[in-house]
Amino acid sequence: MSDKYGSKVWFIPDGYYPSTSSGTQKSHDAICVLNPGKKVANISITLYFEDRDKMQGFYTSCGAERTHHIRMDKIKDKNGNTVPMDVPYAMMVESDVEIIVQYSRMDTTQAEMALMTTMAYPL
């Protein structure tokens, strides 16, 4: 398989991490990564906001020919900061090799939980 599937830069314009959840499932966003290539993908994530400075320094990796589900409620930046709750944000996902990125949101703020998923926008 070619190492040229996917893109090195992806955008997700609609992120949100609510502070309330109902039941045992916790609301969260996730970035789902597929690395079909033969090299490990080193990934950095930048968060953008409406009324505050961007947050950088979120790093992770995805093995060669593997998947990785990055829960945004669990990732921390290089200084130990987490994704802020109850604040809309957008994301830029950058990789040193081509990857495929999908975004999912599990919303359990109500008893009738909802799951939404979409492909991120590649550059």
What's this entry about, in short?
The protein has strands at residues 7-15, 28-35, 41-49, 55-62, 66-71, 89-107, 114-119, 121-122. The chain has 123 residues and is mostly beta strands. Strands 1, 2, 3, 4, 5, 6, 7 and 8 form an 8-stranded antiparallel beta sheet that branches.
How much is the radius of gyration in Å?
15 Å
Overall tally of domains: 1
Helix and strand composition category? mainly beta
**Globular, elongated, flat, extended or rod-shaped: what is the shape?**
globular
Largest sheet: 8 strands, antiparallel
Tell me, rounded to a whole number, the average pLDDT.
88
User: What is the terminal separation in angstroms?
Assistant: 22 Å
Textual characterization of the structure:
The protein has strands at 7-15, 28-35, 41-49, 55-62, 66-71, 89-107, 114-119, 121-122. With 123 residues, it is mostly beta strands. It has one domain (7-122): TM1070-like (Hypothetical Protein Tm1070, Chain: A, Sandwich), CATH 2.60.290.11. Strand 3 and strand 4 form a beta hairpin.
